[in-house]
Amino acid sequence: MNTAKSEVAHFNSKSVSPLQNPFTYDGVVLPEKDRFKYLGMLLDRRMNPKVAEGHAVRPYMAAQSRISDFAKSHELKSRPYAMLWLSKVYGIPAGMYASQVWGTVYLSEGSEFGSQLQKRHLCSLRRILGAKNSTTNWAVLRARVRSRALAIFQVPCFH
12: domain range? Predict the structure, then answer.
């Protein structure tokens, strides 16, 4: 075990750091953390899926920003089909990492649009479609289905 890369997290514990008896390995005290990354997914000591989701929003927004810059430099901003393909290929995958874990909380009726990532995704769709911010989420998704150009764009399912 590499002690330089190892940390200790106490899941669902009510204890307050630091521990009275710190965890050691081969005489090396391992630091205590409230959060850590495992396979790219951020976990916290309370196992709150919103922490992992919040971590996933950053790469999605960074990808959307790069897409916007690319589209601007290649004069693609007025071409919804191209914008949707760019978002589908680069934006969605950037934010979907580990969604099968943190996304399950949004599978119940009434919480479909509670995810920050889903909200950002719908905001991107509104911008590409030229829809007003007041347009309901379901109307944006229906518009996506009705348009041949938008039919290629799959809205991510959190499962």
Answer: 1-33
